[in-house]
């Protein structure tokens, strides 16, 4: 289970393309397609290197206007979904 202390990184088995302010991603292992809005796109970009969920939220709160509670809830939802899809790897809890 992903929590604020989890170290995470995106998996490398995807191909992506910029689309306006969003990002289209194809998981080449299961041929699933995702479209990310600007905030989700930024999460994906930041996960290019290992980062704690708390660190990720701190970065996002610096860049976007959101509360800590809302940011953490939204980020944890996104990461949980993408972990289930095999797009996010948990390196440590």
Give helix and strand order, one letter per element, not per position: EEEEHEHHE
- The CATH class name reads Alpha Beta
Strand count, sense and barrel status of the largest sheet are: 3 strands, antiparallel
Class derived from helix and strand content: alpha+beta
- Please tell me the overall pLDDT: 93
> Are there runs of 5+ residues with pLDDT below 50, and where?
none
Mind telling me the C-alpha Rg?
13 Å
**Alpha-carbon distance between the two ends:** 8 Å
Shape: globular
Describe the secondary structure blueprint for this structure.
Layout: E1 7-10, E2 14-19, E3 22-27, E4 32-36, H1 38-46, E5 51-52, H2 53-63, H3 68-84, E6 88-92
Antiparallel strand pairs: 1-5, 1-6, 2-3, 3-4
